[in-house]
Input
Amino acid sequence: MPTIVVEVMPKAELLDPQGKAVAGALHRLGKAHFTDVRIGKRFELTVDEVTDEVVEEVRQLAADMFSNSVIEDVVNIIVPEVSTGSTHGVAGETH
Amino acid sequence: MAPRVGVITFPGSLDDRDAQRAVRLAGGEPVALWHGSHSLEGVDALVLPGGFSYGDYLRAGAIASFSPIMEEVVDAANKGMPVLGICNGFQMLAEAHLLEGGLIRNSHGQFICRDQVLRVENTETDWSRGYEQGQEIVIPLKNGEGGFMASAETIERLEGEGRVVFRYVDVDPNGSLNAIAGITNERGNVVGLMPHPEHAVEEGFGPDTNAAMRNGTDGLTIFTSAIQHALASA
Output
């Protein structure tokens, strides 16, 4: 069954304490050439069928539920191309 | 008749019974409400207690903000009912857009638990009118995601309109912008704060004071503000 992917990141201007903790661990492992780490969320939504209505619904949910625009940005929504089986991103959904 | 104050229990609420006890000590009648219901049972005020609703999966307070009862909470808040959100309850009020801003993981990445000094900066709200302007109080703070964030414009507006109700003193324990511990809405009936006033309402069970261990009761005034002032004059 097709899966629509929504990717959410903490706002770039805000501190990301999770990413900072991982960056600290990398530094301690001698991998300080990775100068920054940021951690976001990936939602995989499985549906029976991908329609324009469903994609629109996902856009709404991404904005209203999966992210909080005060602290996060929806950075990508990936909709499967049912006919070809490949995937493509639907425009950068930066809010 | 004592004002009836609803305390809503969500899956993962921890401090609902503490909040009920605080309501009782402040002279109110606590009414236990359930997140899955659509009834506020005719209460006069509401408390959204602390805890980790729905495990705080998604974001802190986010799933709870979509609970059935939140429709009635938003409606009541918009009509002027006093609503208090404590810690996870503050996070829910922010997620439900009843209060501005959002709460993120503490800047140092650690859960923090301490007796925290706060300064009361707005004594006009339903939940702070019993305090003196500028009064410093000690309230237990315990959270992992208490960093208050908002856009620069929002912070400027909150500060300009005097809507910061409580501010951290001495240290900013979780990286909150402008050391903001609690805010109110424009009307002053909805207040959210990260520290836990319900843990400072009875001698013997509160923060330490100079007089004796665990004798701090500075949090009680938050509850009496609504129960004995706001609702009594309503």
Notes: The longest strand of chain A covers residues 72-80. The mean pLDDT of chain A is 89. Chain A touches chain B at residues 10, 14-15, 17-18, 20-21, 65-66, 68, 70-72 (CB under 8 Å).
